[in-house]
Amino acid sequence: MCRHLAYVGSPIALGALLTEPEHSLVEQARDARHQTSGCENPDGWGVGWFDDGGRPQRHRTATPIWADPELANLARRVQSGDVMAAVRLASPGSPVEESGNAPFVADGRWLFSLNGIVDGYHEGVGDELRTLISEHRRAGIDGESDSEVLFALALDELDAGRPLGAALAGVVTTVEARTTGRLNMLLSERGAAAATAVGNSLFCRGASLVASEPLDGSLEWEPVADRTVLTSDGAHLVVASL
Predict the structure, then answer these.
(1) Which of 25, 75, 89, 237 counts the highest number of beta carbons within 10 A?
(2) Overall pTM > 0.90
């Protein structure tokens, strides 16, 4: 499994999400509290954000977040109102390499993360899902992870004109027609984000922050019910059943 988060709101330093809170993403990588598979996420991490020009920027590595020499600089230097970050515990059968780490990016517009697993992915399910992806989106898959295939499926949904939340819901339907799994996904563009809760923990704090686990002890954190999809523009949060 993994731990991930998405933020949409007023610009903040990355450190406010990654390093400063008492249960920041760094702490979740070392000692997760709500994770169903182990409590550590040592197989790398990544963070994506949108710059002042609306362009997505990204840093990711197979190095554990707590050992990454770039972490302190990013936490201090970068500010953004749109952030996605994740720490990784690689699924069985998946290589530990940078290409498997979220966030994934596409079209100079989209960021994506998966906290979960597609059951049977390396036993034929992955190949079946790939056949459903358009040639254009299939060509953008770089690595071997199930995350990239789910992102490509979501991009096809977006290409068909579906909004963020509906795109993720469509991916859940497609996967669950063929197999089981844990499908907590994040999808964002500048000024908006969507998330699914399917089999793994998810919490939100107001309309601006959604995360696998609360970053601190604030009473503003609320658990997100399983089998739901939520969308946010930073000011308004909409939650619907899958």
Answers:
(1) 25
(2) yes
